[in-house]
Amino acid sequence: MGRFLIFFSYVGKRYSGVQQQLGALRHGRPVKTAGGVLEEALGALSPVSSPRIQVSSRTDRGVHALRNSCHVDLQHPESGKEYDPAIITNVTNYNLLKMGEDVRVVETRRVADDFHSRANAIGRKYVYRLAHSLSPGLSRRLAGQHRDEEDLYKELKKFTQRSKHPKLPLGSLTPILDQDKIFISRSKLDISKLLQAAALLSGIHDFTSFSNKPRTKEEVRPPPHPVKLLTIGVKRGRPLGHKLLSCGPDVAQAENLEFWDIHVQAKSFLYKMVRRCVGGMILVATDVISLADLQDVLENPRRDFPFTSRLSLSEAGLFLVDVEYQQKDLMFNVDNGKIVNCDQVSRENQKSCSELNKTASIVASSSSNPTDVALSSSDPTDVALSSSDPTDVVLSRTDPADVALSRRDQLDVALSRSDPISQLKTL
């Protein structure tokens, strides 16, 4: 049995989130999730038991991911063998392609058997893509038309009376590659206020006001702590395929829009926290609420404030960009069947090398025999023994952890003459 960390990406429009929902039905059909599709594709490897992934970061229906992660235990059908990570990546992607799914494995790594994709994560990065119109009134009329805006709006309402949100003709402004992958504001944004709101939300706060209660019952475990350290950055964005748009028919629509990317980073997030934080920023940038209103709900956490229902934004513009881990947790090495932390080995190597140099210096300074130990002047970490004696040993820094000095007497270095390349052992 081997545990593997899988980084994977998906376009969320076709999936009801990423977490597998066993037994759940939608319109009489089993609910399809990105995680469930990945598990099905992993089955092509024919492991001993059915794959069951543990996802690090749950995303809602319609949310996309460039690099989500999960871990899975896979036992090779042949005794004593393990799956090669490259085989897992390629076979799974081939199967996903055959299935016609919008999920792909980005990378597979062998990890320690006690590694957990969620518990070991040290950070998560999201980006929310948004755009706003640069032309006054363009949000309520088709590009190139000059009808009265109110008349057009009334006519549109005839076709959208049963819709909760009137379907204004925003689709014509969206380049085809950005469809369902960006949020377009119907009002022009004040970017300076957007930046002020981002600065206000950044830092350590109680984000209860910016979270929703989950619709379904969570597993039996303590609720997530609402206090988070949040970092928000605002950068100019571009339409997807912007280089192609320079010569395509969508260039006019793209030029009428200004794109912005909201980067949000924290160790973990509350339910719908990212979308509601960005929603608050947009309300400030469109003068729906003031910066003081946003500060009030931030400093006095609650869910019953006047604009709470207006915070949540469309899931279309939200992307999970990356899940971060400490490098030492991703290192995997096998030593006599035991998992060895490579960072720990490195530290032990440095310590052994330091002790070796110290003792060798004492031996060299106290010896009058030219065939005794001499320090290499080219590199203080290399200790060279006289080559006039066939029993001499040259200690290389390639693996100083394999060499230890006698603790009985640091001035004595005992060489085994039965084996001229035997190692010094710790007594």
- Structural category is alpha+beta
What series of H and E elements makes up the topology?
EEEHEEHEEHEHEEHHEHHEHEEHEEE
Question: What's the β-strand tally?
Answer: 17
CATH topology of the largest domain: Alpha-Beta Plaits
Any idea what the radius of gyration is?
A: 30 Å
- Which percent bin holds the helix content? 10-25%
Distance between the termini: 37 Å
- CATH class division of the largest domain: Alpha Beta
Any idea how many domains?
Answer: 3
Please tell me what the overall shape is. globular
Corresponding CATH architecture of the largest domain:
2-Layer Sandwich
For the largest beta-sheet, the strand count, sense and barrel status come to: 10 strands, mixed
What is the CATH homology-level superfamily of the largest domain? Pseudouridine synthase I, catalytic domain, C-terminal subdomain
Strand content: 15-25%
Number of helices: 10
Question: What is the overall pLDDT average?
Answer: 77
Low-confidence stretches: 137-145, 341-346, 366-427
Features:
single chain, alpha+beta, Alpha-Beta Plaits, 10-stranded mixed beta sheet, 10 helices
